[in-house]
Amino acid sequence: MKIKVTGYNIWGGKKIFIHKKLTEMDRPTPFMTQDRNGKTIYSELKGEHFDEPKEITLKIGMYVMLLLQSDLIRDGDQACGHNHYYDGKRLRSVYTKMPCKEDLS
Questions:
Q1: In Å, how far from its chain's centre is CA 35?
Q2: How far is 100 from 90, CA to CA, in rounded Å?
Q3: pLDDT tens track for 46-92
Q4: HSE on the CB side for 59, CA within 13 Å?
Q5: What is the pTM of this model?
Q6: Rounded Cα gap, residues 61 and 84, in angstroms
Q7: How deeply is 96 buried, as exposed, middle or buried, from its count of CB atoms within 10 A (0-12, 13-18, 19+)?
Q8: How far apart are CA 91 and CA 46, in angstroms?
Q9: Euclidean distance between CA atoms 35 and 77, whole angstroms
Q10: Rg of the Cα trace of the chain?
């Protein structure tokens, strides 16, 4: 699976890529999130920002911070990033384990 990202941040020692939609909509990423095992992890406020979005190929276990349409509908102006992990077939929410069904292009 390929997606476009604008950089990454480190949460709890894990590299989490930032999907381009978060940057395009000027939305924040959360200070704390969870890993796929349900462990709370905190932002280390370090990482890298890419001037232009880069396309990456996801590998099993990689994390991506996404902004979903359902987040925007539910949270409106307060919507922010929502962490997902790649299971080899699709991205899944770290919270619900439900697959992401939205178009990420």
A1: 11
A2: 7
A3: 999 999 999 999 999 999 999 988 888 998 888 888 999 999 999 99
A4: 1
A5: 0.91
A6: 10
A7: exposed
A8: 23
A9: 25
A10: 12
SS3 track for the chain? CEEEEEEEEEECCEEEEEEHHHHHCCCCCCCEEECCCCCEEEEEEEEEEEEEEEEEECCCCCEEEECCHHHHHHHHHHCCCEEEEECCCCEEECCCCCECCCCCC
Dihedral over alpha carbons 89, 91, 97, 102 (to 10 degrees): -110
Amino acid at 1: M
Structural tokens at position 17: 């890529």
Q: Which residue has the tokens 């095992």?
A: 37
